[in-house]
Every structure is written in structure tokens, then in C-alpha cells.
Amino acid sequence: MIKRVFKLTTVLLWLSAACSYADDTAEVQGSAASLLAQQLQDTQTLQAQFLQTISNDKGQVLQQASGKLIVKKPQQFYWLTEQPYEHLVVTDGESLWLYDIDLEQVNKESYSSNIDKAPALLLSGDIAAIQKNYQVSVLAKDGSSISFQLLPNASDSAFSQLAISFQQQKVTRMVLKDNFEQTTSISFSEVEINLPVADQQFKFTPPAGVEVIVNER
């Protein structure tokens, strides 16, 4: 179960940074990277329900999970998986906590937004960094809907390709294919942006009696 949590965290970092760093400096027109940044530049907070499906290379569903996500600039996120098992991933931008509620075990490490370690920063809004690390293209565009494909330049990237879709500047779907040909698809519903979210939402104190494992970087 811990392995599932860490895989989910990689995906979560990707989305979190999408909402954390894009800003009004991303005004360069005409490139897919700048169009991607523009989808995110007005988002200060994001709240949504999610359904995550992991499939093998034959399209067979290996795992499904659902829960809720809360993101706030800069680098704060809360991802609670509610079904079929419970775990929480939360960071205030300094400490990253992974709480496996069923196992009563918590992993703690320093939060890192290293573009070499997580595909999150391809959505940082830093067009130069995106173009350096990823090949970005527009998959489809229809009115207020747009989808992007991102191919990492590094051979040791956690994912071989990624795609993200927006409707009226709200993220609706993410699809990530790993190097084992497994596909992680995350659909978002009840998406709300720029509603007030208190910083306390991203603070975590381990419950009494749970095992805490500190991972040094």
C-alpha cells in the first residue's frame, strides 16, 4: 500500500505544481508551453473530487480509487483517498506527509519541487524550464476546451508521457503512462477554483499511536 501512496504522490506533485507556480509572467504567445501556463495563471486555489484508475498495457483495470483534492498556491496540497482504502498526502510546502490510515503508518520527508525528480514542474509556469525538460504539444483544442501532451526529455523520467485536459481553465483529466506501460487516469469533478482555503488545511500532526518514519533526503 505504501508503494501505491508514493506513486500517487508523484502524480499529486505534478498537479500541485500546476496550480502553484503559473503566474502573470507567462505571457509569451504562440507556443504550447505558454498556452499550458496560461490555463493555470489565474488559479489560486483548487478543490475537486477525483476518480483515479490504473490500467495495464492491455487496458485491464488494476486499481481504482476516489477521494478529494485541495490545492493552494504556493506548493500546498491535500489529497485524501477515501475509497477503497484510506490514505492522506498533505504538504504545507515544507514537510510532506504520507499517512496510510489503514496501516496506521506515517512517512515524513522534506517537500521538494525538483523538476528532475517530479513531472510536477513541467506545469510550473516557467516556460523556459518546461521547454528544457519536456516536449509540449497541443493534442486538441475546441472552444474553451484544450488538451496537452508532454513528453519528457530525460530518459530516467518517472513517466513516458503525460496528458492534461482543461475546460474553461479548470483541470478535468490527467493521463500518465509509466515506463511499464501502465496508465494512470485521473478524472476530476465538482472542480472549484479560487474559493477561500485556510493554510491550516495543509498542516498535519500525526495521530497518537501511529508509526512515524522520517525519510531524509
Automatic annotation (TrEMBL):
Keyword Mitochondrion: no
Subcellular location: Periplasm
GO cellular component: outer membrane-bounded periplasmic space
CDD domains: LolA
Assembly and interaction partners: Monomer.
NCBIfam families: lolA
Name recorded for this polypeptide: Outer-membrane lipoprotein carrier protein
Upper taxonomic lineage: Bacteria, Pseudomonadati, Pseudomonadota, Gammaproteobacteria, Cellvibrionales
